[in-house]
Amino acid sequence: MLKKFTVLALTCLLLQVAYVQPVAAHSKAEKDARFTEQVKAGIARLGTGPEARIEVKLRDNTKLKGYISEAKDDSFVITDPQTGTATPVAYPQVKQAREATTSRKGPRSPSALARWWRWASS
To answer: Is the distance from CB of 97 to CB of 54 less than 8 angstroms?
Structure first.
């Protein structure tokens, strides 16, 4: 009985080892390269010019806001519309990027809209 149990246990163990799928672990360099490509694609999608507003957080925790004035293969330039300062940014420096939204003027809720409409029409 012990012999049958040992053979069964060893068989199960060998089958388990044989059918284990290796986990595809991505290195940090691969993840960074993939993120850099995503940033590059996002910049290309936004385009350039004053309408292409963006907010970027760099790996050194510097925050930049402005519009994309120039996009190259290895970097892009963010221009602050208030000061006119152009800041070149290499794609690998980007930690977080998002399209900047302009603030909406006027009321946000229906009741505020009604109050604003009464005020504006008086």
So the answer is: yes
Set out the domains of the chain in order of their start, with CATH numbers: 48-100 (2.30.30.100)
Helices and strands in the chain, H and E counts = 3, 5
Q: Is 0.70 surpassed by the pTM of this model?
A: no
pLDDT tens digits for 30-48? 888 888 898 898 888 888 9
The answer to whether 100 and 42 have CB atoms below 8 angstroms apart is no
Q: What's the rounded Cα separation, in Å, for the pair 64 and 69? A: 13
Tokens of 12: 């199960």
CB atoms within 10 A of CB 97: 22
